[in-house]
Amino acid sequence: MPGLMEVFILKDRVNGQRDNIFMMLFEKAFILIALLVVLLVGVALDLPAWGVGALVGAALGPIVYGHFYFIYIRPVKKQQNIDVEKKKAKTGRK
User: Fold this and answer.
1) Is 41 within 8 Å of 55 (Cβ atoms)?
2) What is the pLDDT of residues 9-43, one digit of tens each?
3) How far apart are CA 23 and CA 11, in angstroms?
């Protein structure tokens, strides 16, 4: 699992390809919608206010990291794997 600094470095590396303001807005909107769904699940389960807060607080980290993973980390890792495969094909290694 990459550390926080590595996530920001990967995000900066991908940002050159994703300068579209609408993509950044949609990214934030999807995070807020996911947190809203978690909040609504907590309310639907009739949890007390502190329980809903704890549920949303516990879900905040995984939701944000999941979005960062799929939007920033995974494309860079996929590109790195493609580059490694190309190098292996050039040298004839397995």
Assistant:
1) yes
2) 666 665 555 556 777 788 889 999 999 999 999 99
3) 13
**Long-range Cβ pairs for the range 13-21 (8 Å, 24+):** 13/76, 14/71, 14/72, 14/75, 14/76, 18/71
- Nearest-angstrom CA–CA distance, 52 and 55: 5
Phi-psi region of 46 (alpha: psi -120 to 50; beta: other; left: phi over 0): left
- Which tokens is 19 given? 């300068």
The rounded distance, in Å, linking the Cα atoms of 30 and 50 is: 24
- Reported as type and span, the H/E element at residue 41 is helix 21-44
